[in-house]
Amino acid sequence: xxxxxxxxxxxxxxxxxxxxxxxxxxxxxxxxxxxxxxxxxxxxxxxxxxxxxxxxxxxxxxxxxxxxxxxxxxxxxxxxxxxxxxxxxxxxxxxxxxxxxxxxxxxxxxxxxxxxxxxxxxxxxxxxxxxxxxxxxxxxxxxxxxxxxxxxxxxxxxxxxxxxxxxxxxxxxxxxxxxxxxxxxxxxxxxxxxxxxxxxxxxxxxxxxxxxxxxxxxxxxxxxxxxxxxxxxxxxxxxxxxxxxxxxxxxxxxxxxxxxxxxxxxxxxxxxxxxxxxxxxxxxxxxxxxxxxxxxxxxxxxxxxxxxxxxxxxxxxxxxxxxxxxxxxxxxxxxxxxxxxxxxxxxxxxxxxxxxxxxxxxxxxxxxxxxxxx
Length: 374
Known about the structure:
D-Maltodextrin-Binding Protein, domain 2; 12 strands; disordered N terminus; disordered C terminus
């Protein structure tokens, strides 16, 4: 009997540990690297099939808007259509999904992880969305007028600089880049909150000296700006890049060349994150599965937009981070061998162990009774 109690206690401990390790916790990391713990938020999936899928993107001159319009038009079916909406960007899109305004959105992978953990502009975790695919790299571009004389991030001190819409992915990239260079966006520069289009107009008019823009290259707003104004792409520098990649693992190094813009005559070193499609958890597994499958298998998507050439199914889940894949997307990637099937055997293993304990107990009891009988 003592042996049975020991085994039972050990089993209970293991099951408790397993449950603790797999609890949907909300520990995250703030911009400064500090750990923060928020109240647990349950992830619940619905079973709604939408006839009209409202998609949050970005400004009309940004790549989000153009890419979503092209790629989703390619996979529109008789059963449902996509309504692409211009928005303030990543944070607005995630909050819009949470509010029920959008059913799908394009977001930066860093911002969606901030939302999921409830950090960096999000006062509480948002768990009403799931990822379906990382689609292409978004380049963090620091564009300055040639007349400004800006050649490094440090040169931004005292300058008029656009840092994206408040709460947008651009805003977080800009403030993190500035901080990596030892600059405070509130005190060391004259910050302006502006969209891609407004930033380009302000640069053209001489109202600002530089602008941060995070988007797939070439970005329409910058391409059009360069036809009217002499501009330069600013190299972030190895020290800034190294610090960024060390502090924020979602960044990767990116080299801008003339393939990105004709005015880039020498390699410009910067960083990039991943543009990602997310959907509401209310979406049915079947609909999310079909959308994911069509994104990768519909031949028209590959030719719908220049950024589609950078889509890679083999690495599409690499930038997901802590955000879960929607069950429909997960089903597709398991079928394609991109990810392994979820481990569901753990519960069965616990049940098997419980049965084994019961069998062992029965054997021990029989042995004890035999001893007593003897």
